Description:
Shape: globular
Strand content: under 5%
Helix content: over 70%
Radius of gyration: 19 Å
Number of helices: 9
Largest sheet: 2 strands, antiparallel
Distance between the termini: 15 Å
Order of helices and strands: HHEEHHEHHHHHE
Number of strands: 4
Structural class: mainly alpha
Amino acid sequence: MSTVFGLGSVALYLTGAVLLGLRLASLPAFAFLGRRHLVAVAAGGVTLHGVLLYQGIVTERGLDLGFFNALSLIAWVVVLLLVLAALTKPVANLGLIVLPLAALSIVLALAYTTARPPEWASLGIQVHTMVSILAFGVLTIAACQSVLLALQERQLRHKPPGRLIQILPPLQTQESVLFQLLGIGFFLLSLGLASGMMFVQDMLAQHLAHKTILATAAWCVFAVLLWGRWRFGWRGRTAIRWCLAGFCILALAYLGSKLVLEVVLGEYWSQG
């Protein structure tokens, strides 16, 4: 049954990405497609994906958050946040990047698994985990937005400007959305770090020291970016570079350790 939910979610995600691509191409046959149609398809994928995650992560012995399950959970959070944000913000076009990656995460979770024993976590640890995943999800959307912004800015320099400029919202609107996402993500990341200091014990024994150091470094990068925006009005390439640098460091913190321990070094590794 898990495979059915997984493949159904993959199909909906990929359908949403294809429809979005056709909409952006402005083909006459697909002129009827609106934001609500794309959001509905993505929402269907999120629902099936959520059922799949519940079946794969919640076990009688605790939560199974091996590398591929964690990757799939993060992808689910990213798509869910994108669907909710698309109801009020012009971010639906990010689905062209997010939806195929979410589909890939499901395929990997179905194909591979870790034999890491599930563990019951205290309420404090569960709160820390969920806040951290939410922070990473919001900042992932911000990183995708910065990539789209970079493409838009690059085409703006062309004479005449590329088609992307005609399709996407104005550059100023795109930058405003980026910094709104960064502000929310930075706030959640701050809560995640604070809750980690409160509830996580013996970080060295739990292989969490490097994760904390990298997450703190990413927090510093985002803090400098937001301060630069407030103090000096940073925008354009400067904002994009700082955003992507912070996201890369955060990705190493959140996923790098799991990848090394469970996949590269082979701890708890098995193929399903």
